Amino acid sequence: MEPLKLGLVGLGGMGRSHLDKEVGLEEVRFVGVADVVAASVDEVSSRYDIPGFYSYQQLIDSGACEAVLIATPHPFHAPIALYAIERGLHVLSEKPIAVAVSEADRMIEAAKRAGVVLGVMFQTRTEAHIRRARQLLADGAIGQIYRSVMIASHWYRTQAYYDSGAWRGTWKGEGGGVLMNQAPHSLDLFIWLGGKPRRVLSRVDTRLHNIRVEDTVEAMLDYEDGHTGWLYTTTAEWPGENRFEFTGERGKLVIQDRTLRLYRMSKTIREETATGATWGKPEGSWETIEVAPEPAGHPRVVQQFARAIRLGEPLVATGEDGRNSLELANALLLSGYQHKPVAIPLDRDEYDRFLAEKRATE
Ligand SMILES: NC(=O)c1ccc[n+]([C@@H]2O[C@H](COP(=O)([O-])OP(=O)(O)OC[C@H]3O[C@@H](n4cnc5c(N)ncnc54)[C@H](O)[C@@H]3O)[C@@H](O)[C@H]2O)c1
Fold first, then answer.
1. Residue 56 C-alpha to ligand 1 middle, in angstroms?
2. Which atom from ligand 1 is nearest to the alpha carbon of 180?
């Protein structure tokens, strides 16, 4: 396979980490790096011996790349992606795909029109225990899900972290707090494993940090198939927990950090409840599912992006996947700040107005 000629936009923490991990992969060749900070461009360009550009437009217009990887702060993901897509380039965007779901709509639509690939950096999907969990759920190991739980409190951040970049922890720079920066990975997995809710009622709080956006969120969720969910995420708690629970008609699947535990019942809870004795209890047992580690993380997403373009293989996460978790994050923000239940599909115009009002306060 001919390596994909890839340009990188954004040479901060994540952009540089991509270069550290992905220069030398067989599937891609970095052909240009761009940032608005000239000193960063010069430094990175000479360290990796990759041509440097002082704006994303210069990089894209140079004709050097077939695709761009976008690792700028989130509000630039959509404009850079649209600029690239309209010039026939494939795009891999860092998470979140954009700030408002209306922007994600435009990106997906533009990519379809241009016939290019649009992917999102959701590398946690590549982890072996997550893929195994998805397989177990798809195989019906717990039957139909009737209750889902997500606790993502492993995203602890200090005040110094928020102070490390002017864009962090602001409506203008991020379009939200934990929901827009840390939790997108968790929301993505929650949807990928348990489905997309159709209604949310959330509570948001800025509990510990001196920031304008939320650092803590909890919410009740309703799903199309009748199941219910609850989620909690925060950057203001220690020790943190990274936990998903799916309770179904035939058992329960728990993902706690990297451990996968499955409870299988001999009969469904419905049958047990209808036929069990007065003080009867359902039968079943717990097992820990052993999962052999496999190559995972950011490089896997980049490799698969190149293989999707060259060989038509599936992406790790598509633009639509990116939109799903963004739409949930937007709905949780609107619900939490306006103290009301919010339906998904989200009203795009209402969300755009809400975000504009929040940004106008900064
Ligand atoms: N997938 C992951 O695990 C993961 C981890 C960390 C960050 N991220 C994502 O990566 C993105 C960047 O985060 P970060 O921590 O690297 O931020 P950062 O502040 O360290 O770096 C951002 C870089 O983008 C540059 N930039 C800003 N505007 C630009 C523009 N218009 N054109 C070109 N360059 C521009 C800045 O100068 C800076 O060098 C965010 O969207 C974040 O959510 C993803």
1. 13
2. 43
Q: Is 93 in the pocket of ligand 1 (CB under 6 A)?
A: no
Q: Which residues contact 112 (CB under 8 A, 6 or more apart)?
A: none
Q: Ligand 1 centroid vs 346 CA: distance in angstroms?
A: 27
**Residue 163 CA to its chain's centroid (Å):** 23
**Local structure of 335: helix, strand or coil:** helix
CA gap 90, 88 in Å, rounded: 7
Among candidates 325, 289, 287, 310, which has minimal Cα distance to 124?
Answer: 325
Q: Per-residue pLDDT tens for 249-260?
A: 999 999 999 999
Using the mean position of ligand 1's atoms as its centre, give its distance from the Cα of residue 284 in Å: 47
The answer to whether the bond into 239 is cis (omega within 30° of 0) is yes
Q: Kindly list the structural domains of the chain, giving each domain's residue range(s) and its CATH number in brackets, ordered by start.
A: 4-123+297-317 (3.40.50.720), 125-294+325-343 (3.30.360.10)
Taking the centre of ligand 1 as the mean of its atom positions, its distance from the CA of residue 9, in whole angstroms, is 9
Tell me the pLDDT tens digit for each residue of 109-140.
999 999 999 999 999 999 999 999 999 999 99
Q: Which residue's CA is the nearest one to ligand 1's atom 8? A: 14
Task: Measure the CA–CA gap between 157 and 80, rounded to whole angstroms.
Answer: 28
> Average pLDDT, stretch 60-67?
98
Distance CA(200)–CA(323), nearest Å, equals 16
